[in-house]
Amino acid sequence: MHNIGCKLLMINGFLLMLLGFYAVFFNNTPFFYIINWLMDPLFWGNEPLSKGTVNFKIFTWDLLGMFHIIWGVNLFFIVKYGLMTKKEVWAWRCIVIQVVTWLFVIAYFTLSIGQNTYYPVTIFFAALFIIPLIMTKDVLKKRETGNNP
Amino acid sequence: MSESKMNQFMFFVRRLLLVSVIITLFGIGLAVFKNTLLSFLVNDLFCPTFWPNTITDEGTARFKNLILSLCGAMMTTWGILLFGIINNAFKKRELWAWNTVFLSTCAWFTIDEFFSVYYHVWLNAIGNVPLLIMLIVPLVMTRKFVVKGGVSHA
């Protein structure tokens, strides 16, 4: 059970990296149409965007993509070495704190946008992390030896 | 490892911990205080790069607030993971921890700096340099201390 949970978390880390690369390198291409199709009407309706706004969108998608890559890299290696190999308590707690913070912010903005259709998406992404974390919580039984984040 | 070398290693570990706290706090600031405490940085210095005059339409203002808050949230999570790795595995001088921090630093700087320069976001491009120095100097100085598998009592 522990190893399956770890592998699921590692897959999540890998997917986050892929998602990040997609946002960084394809945000100004037709491959990003689906995201723009979902997001743009929430803010601008059918109005054309100014050049400054278009550049801001491209730049900030690059930033968000970069943060996803960093998150994926960190998550992948913490799970691979800290959680799976050494079963460290700090690794599990660190991921929980990070995921809870992220979920809290994502939930807040999903609510603030006021689009009911996004709730299932948020719940789906929450489940992607929460289920493997529950599967790996057996590390808490191990006597704590190191420092904690 | 001798005591003086251990002290040297811990000196740089503390610097890295400080950087992770700075990243976390700045992320929280960007997510929560972008229109209050950090307004001068965001609205007076950063936004004119894209909108030389003020933002006129409400949709753009809402999008800007949303996306900067998300960036702040992601930055906070980066700081938290960085702190966790440095305060535990890095302290035990584990090679994977050093590699992870180094890899994430490279990913951050290359992508962020390239697009900041490309879109003439000079505030970001210049602001990245001190942060890079604060991360890369301790990383370079601690490289010789890390070993595969780490040590039990650092």
Your description of this structure?
The complex is a heterodimer of chains A (149) and B (154). Chain A has 149 residues and is mainly α. Chain A has helices spanning 2-26, 33-44, 51-85, 89-113, 119-135. Helix content of chain A is 77%, strand content 0%. In chain A, helix 4 (89-113) runs antiparallel to helix 5. By secondary structure, chain B is mostly helical. Chain B is 75% helix and 0% strand. Chain B is built from 5 helices and no strands. Chain B has helices spanning 3-32, 39-46, 58-90, 95-118, 122-142. In chain B, helix 1 (3-32) runs antiparallel to helix 3 and helix 1 (3-32) runs antiparallel to helix 5. The longest helix of chain B is centred in the middle third of the chain and has 33 residues, at 58-90. At the A-B interface, helix 3 and helix 4 of A face helix 3 and helix 4 of B.
Tell me the helix content of chain B. over 70%
Mean pLDDT figure of chain B? 87
Gross geometry of chain B: elongated
Number of helices of chain A: 5
Total beta-strand segments of chain A: 0
Shape of chain A: elongated
* Broad structural category of chain B: mainly alpha
Overall pLDDT of chain A: 84
Radius of gyration of chain A: 18 Å
Element string of chain A (H = helix, E = strand): HHHHH
The fraction of residues in strands of chain B falls at under 5%
Radius of gyration of chain B: 18 Å
Low-confidence stretches of chain A: none
Count of alpha/pi helices of chain B: 5
Major β-sheet of chain A, in short? none
Strand tally of chain B: 0
Kindly report how far apart the N and C termini of chain A lie: 25 Å
Following the backbone from N to C, one meets helices and strands of chain B in this order, namely: HHHHH
| Weakly predicted, low-confidence segments of chain B | none
